[in-house]
Design brief:
By secondary structure, the chain is mainly alpha-helical. The chain has two helices and no strands.
Length: about 70
Amino acid sequence: MTKTLSFAGVHFTVAFAVGYLMTGSVWVGGALALVEPACNTVAFHLHEKVWKRIELRRAAALNGASGPSALPL
């Protein structure tokens, strides 16, 4: 979760800078910095969870484990 929060901080900063530089508006930059990275941060967190599950399944398959009891929920 720390990695996700760090990513969010960087993303908020970049989104604000890009919005401000493109429009010259602090309001537009601020809106972009709140909305877009917040959505992207949630998507990133879910993406990481999906990939972790894929990695666990691959490891279980390589170790010969099978069935639902071989994988954590």
